[in-house]
Amino acid sequence: MRRRHLTELLAVAACVVVLAATAACGGDGGARPGQPATVRLGFSAWPGWFPWQVAQEKGLFKENGVTVEVTYFDSYTDSLQALSTGNLDANSQTLNDTLSSVSGGAKQTIVLVNDNSTGNDQIIAAPGINSVADLRGRKVAVEQGTVDHYLLLLALEKAGLTERDITLTPLLTDAAAAAFVAGQVDAVGVFAPFTTTALGRSGSRAIATSKDFPGAIPDHLAFDTEFVSDHPDEVQKVVQTWFDTLKWITANPGEAVTIMARRGGVSEADYQTYNAGTTIFTREQNLAAFTPGADPTHLDHQADQIAEFLVKTELAPAKPSLDGLLEPKFVQAAT
């Protein structure tokens, strides 16, 4: 009997809960199309998403005339499930995880690029393991079905290996980092701020990072597609708030770092080390990413590449349709 992937389990749960939610009142609290609606927005522990905490604490959603209930998830997987099951209207997540949800039947629309991972997703190994090729026969912990699992597969493929050449230990990201520090596994796939935890193991080092695969891990804001159709004004105001928040952070870097480091549970000094590994996207970079193109800097190209890879590695049951996945009009209308 073939082992089920986490993404498939989420898709099964989504089918059941979304049908119930739709029959009841929909994911917008019962507001009719065109009427004001509260936006339920989720995010989790990733440097490119902590600006949402700044937006919440500094009242920037309110300044843009939109009511937003922000929920922080200790478990990234729980945030993915919350959007897929109708318990959120929007969530910040990776492109490959959005495609996994869509392949399982979820209807989601990407309206904003938060950032690209440029080093803050890492495969960290114990002393004596100097390359990805050295992982053959080793125990590697990673949260199955998430972006760092994807990074691990990319790194293995580049080294001429497959998942069958290692002993995969599926754990939630925080538990994976802890298991690595405790010496229970030989390597771990984690994202910041959990990279700080993993590197606490004496002599450990990153043997592969998202910097090695430019454009492979774009992070974005995905909305429930029906919410986008029914409440475009709210979506526009949320997107505008993102860019206003980036301006506020630029003008108030010290206070912003304090807010984001506190949310991440790390020191301000550690938080500042994440800057180079996460490239926050400006409006201009968003416009370029949403423009169709034939290289990894363009979302449509990257989505097609990731979709094929997910099917090839059985992280998704079938290649999802990309129709309606990318909606650039909100970024285009932002000021």
UniProtKB/TrEMBL annotation:
Pfam families: NMT1_2. Its main location: periplasm. Keywords: Signal. One of its GO terms (cellular component) is periplasmic space. Residues 1-23 form the signal peptide. It comes from the Bacteria. One of its GO terms (molecular function) is ATPase-coupled transmembrane transporter activity. It is found in: Periplasm. NCBIfam families: SsuA_fam. Belongs to the bacterial solute-binding protein SsuA/TauA family. This is NitT/TauT family transport system substrate-binding protein. It comes from Plantactinospora soyae. The lineage of its organism: Bacteria, Bacillati, Actinomycetota, Actinomycetes, Micromonosporales.
